[in-house]
Amino acid sequence: MTRLNYVLELIESILKNLNPRVTVREHRIDDDTEYLSVDVIIERDVILRLREYLRGSDIIAYGYYLRIGSYEEWWNNRPHHPEIPTHPHHRHRDGRIEPLTTPSLREFLTHVKRLIQQKSSSASLNP
């Protein structure tokens, strides 16, 4: 099973009640590396962009992006914030860089689902 298959199954299992529209933008496998780029649209104003680069079964680089209306948040492991205690893992939210203690796609998708449910149950978004 490729990582892409796993990612698509994970999206389906976590976000299935939200009717996600999934587009695989890019997928490459070369020797022991795999790269994937996937877009997910939920409703009109929710967009996810998921990118991962793997060597073997290790995720070497990732970027998970979320936009709900004008709210944006993204998680990644780019090593450009060495001051963060969870370096290189961090998230960008509300113009701040924050530590990211659980840097997994499963946790990101679960977080997204919570935010969407919160948005649906209230008029404002308070992540």
Overview of the molecule:
The chain has 127 residues and is of the alpha+beta class. The protein has 2 helices and 7 strands; from the N terminus they run αβββββββα. The chain has a 7-stranded antiparallel sheet, covered by helices on one side. β3 and β4 form a beta hairpin. α1 packs parallel to α2. The chain is globular and about 45 Å long.
Radius of gyration, rounded?
15 Å
* Beta strand count: 7
Low-confidence stretches: none
Strand % is 35-45%
- The gross shape turns out to be globular
Distance between the termini: 34 Å
Topology:
Elements: H1 3-15, E1 21-30, E2 33-42, E3 46-55, E4 58-68, E5 71-76, E6 90-93, E7 96-99, H2 105-121
Antiparallel strand pairs: 1-2, 2-3, 3-4, 4-5, 5-6, 6-7
Salient structural properties:
127 residues, alpha+beta, seven-stranded antiparallel beta sheet, 2 helices
Short description, anyone?
With 127 residues, the protein is an alpha+beta fold. Helix content is 24%, strand content 43%.
